[in-house]
């Protein structure tokens, strides 16, 4: 049964990838969504409604779903969350909200930069070396999530000449070797999708651990289709990938024309088969190795973090939000990690009372001129010696030289 989180996460992924654009990148929509979900219960009024719309579900349900993920971690996808505050900045509302966070969420005073970097490395299998934001005295509150995976394919790929990518592929001339699916252990199909039309799909599975696994689904659409629409199609077809049943939108090869196209080459041959009706369908796939390492700004209003900071700290604070992400896809396995972080920074000093005194020398007063001699600890004998003193009882008008422009330094 597909988790109820798939659709909300697919919608948030569309927001995030649209904001990032069509450059080569990897991101973790889940890493960002988790922080929004954990902060949701602190929101009220219009901010709460805004977060519910971005999360794709009401904030209490989102918080419960996030808690379930974090309190029962996946053996192949280590995860962690943290909430830190500046010492002295700990309101009653924040304390009440923190009490409802998942048990595994780290809380406490804001660490220094070295400790934040260490947290990122510890919770991403060392794949993310540095925390994506830089701590400063202005930080009031910090939220962070980390996700990582490092898996081996249940069946590794074979290698093949890059020409297998097809004559129309520009990559074929740039690469020497690519990956080809082995005789078993991988799945492939052609699917009809609502956002990208017909797409080619490949799915590789990780070695199972404790009854849990990971399926990495690759989806390619027509080159004329916008990247954000192909990404949406990938979420669409992956909705049933974890179940191992009939793929969503699968097309029969016997409904497609024979020959070469930009996404596949379809041929027919006579074979002996026990397939129903004597019509057997086979799929192989050729795809390149790839890797990516990116930093993503998450401050755009539609991504939710500005609403989160308003919910937690009110108005008058500034936002920094960023995600560091990496991934590597190869013959023998896949690894990926992301650290998502948001800072609430003071933009206005806390409200208080200020008094300003204008000092008025309107009657006789004393003057003492004291010498200084040297700097720091290396001081001469004149240092601190009062050289002149006066009692001012007869004031004068400014002299002409006082009214002129100051002389240039000689």
Describe this protein's structure:
By secondary structure, the chain is α+β, with helices and mostly antiparallel strands. It folds into three domains: 6-148 and 293-346, 2-Layer Sandwich (Antithrombin, Chain I, domain 2), CATH 3.30.497.10; 184-283, no CATH class; 365-396, no CATH class. It has nine helices and 18 strands. It has a six-stranded mixed β-sheet, with helices on one face. It has a three-stranded antiparallel β-sheet with strand order 4-5-11, with no helix packed on it. A hairpin with a 3-residue loop joins strand 13 and strand 14. InterPro entries: Serpin_sf, Serpin_sf_1. It comes from Micromonospora rhizosphaerae. This is Serpin (Serine protease inhibitor).
Q: Strands, helices and their partners?
A:
Layout: H1 6-20, H2 29-39, H3 45-55, H4 59-71, E1 79-85, H5 92-99, E2 106-109, H6 113-122, E3 139-152, E4 158-161, E5 177-180, E6 186-193, E7 197-205, E8 215-220, H7 227-237, E9 259-260, E10 265-266, E11 286-287, E12 290-297, H8 305-313, E13 317-329, E14 333-346, E15 365-370, E16 374-375, E17 378-379, E18 386-392, H9 400-403
Parallel strand pairs: 1-2
Antiparallel strand pairs: 1-3, 3-14, 4-5, 5-11, 6-7, 7-8, 9-10, 12-13, 13-14, 15-18, 16-17
Helix pairs in contact: 1-7, 2-4, 3-8
